[in-house]
Amino acid sequence: MPAHSTPRDFDIVVVGELNADLILTGNVTPAFGQVEKLVDDATLTIGSSSAIFACGVARLGLRTAFIGKVGDDIFGQFMKNSLAERGIDVSGIVVDPSLKTGLTVILSRGNDRAILTYLGSISALTYADIDQALIARARHLHLGSYYLLDSLRPICPRLFADAHQHGLTVSLDTNYDPTEQWQGGITDTLAHTDVFLPNEAELHAISRQPTTDNALRALHQQVGLIAVKQGAQGATAIHNGGLFTAGSIPVQVVDTTGAGDSFDAGFIYGYLNDWTLTDSLRLGCICGALSTRAAGGTAAQATLSEAQAHLAALP
Ligand SMILES: Nc1ncnc2c1ncn2[C@@H]1O[C@H](COP(=O)(O)OP(=O)(O)O)[C@@H](O)[C@H]1O
Ligand SMILES: [Mg+2]
After folding, report:
1. Closest atom of ligand 1 relative to the 199 alpha carbon
2. pLDDT, tens digit (0-9, with 9 covering 90-100), for 218-252
3. Cα-to-centroid distance, 188 and ligand 1 (Å)
4. Which one of 139, 175, 222, 285 has the lowest number of neighbouring Cβ atoms within 10 Å?
5. Which domains are delineated in the chain?
6. Rounded (10°) angle between helices 277-291 and 259-272
């Protein structure tokens, strides 16, 4: 029986960043000089890759806990309450009154977006904030947005080694590196990672290989299982030296925010339930595609029965 099949209180503990997204929709270009322009709509919603992933696995029915850090403010309360409303255990979220919770403002115009992010408490999450007892109650640890977690990043190899000691498996979605340096000890971290979940641009940047095949083969020397997300094309995985692919499903795309995080949710659902690699990839693609049907990362995330209906309909 794999280590992640042992009985635990939680299927997944997510370690990562928390911020709200404020989405402003309208055909406008902002201008300095105190120019006021009107937009058509404004929505405050759950942002941050790690939170969107947590909501995705919770929606698929996995028992989920979250470890992160917020300030004692309205955006921190919004994020904590939003996760708790979805049945996610928030006891591992540290509230630090000396910090401000991060916020992303997205100006959405047709199929293009301008994004401004204030990191706030995200970069202040430290190893000391992590409740090891909570980790020990889960079967699997997922860490999101590695490149935003400035204080935790150097300690990730230790965090992952701790998780393995507690019998958990570990997945990592680094997401984009805003500094575009793509360093920060990623090799050590990957050496302690069971499942690596980059998108294609991130895979190429991290491996410094221009083709997806070469990049997968290079990083496969450190990580046993890698699944790379390829947008509308679907996804490709490498395991035991073999390549596996799955196409996505056709979908009326409204907003692709968080599609990669919903892919991760579906893929890790299959992984934890010992599905075949091909079926796990297919579930990931279905969850990623379905999540694009509505604005924001979580509003259109699939339930298990909805995703399984699409899986059953595949040729
Ligand atoms: N336009 C699309 N049509 C169909 N499926 C999509 C589309 N965009 C994303 N997806 C699905 O969501 C998954 C993740 O999206 P992707 O854009 O590759 O990741 P990320 O958000 O991390 O960049 C894809 O593997 C695919 O299955
Ligand atoms: Mg992503």
Report:
1. 22
2. 999 999 999 999 999 999 999 999 999 999 999 99
3. 28
4. 222
5. 3-18+49-100+122-313 (3.40.1190.20)
6. 150
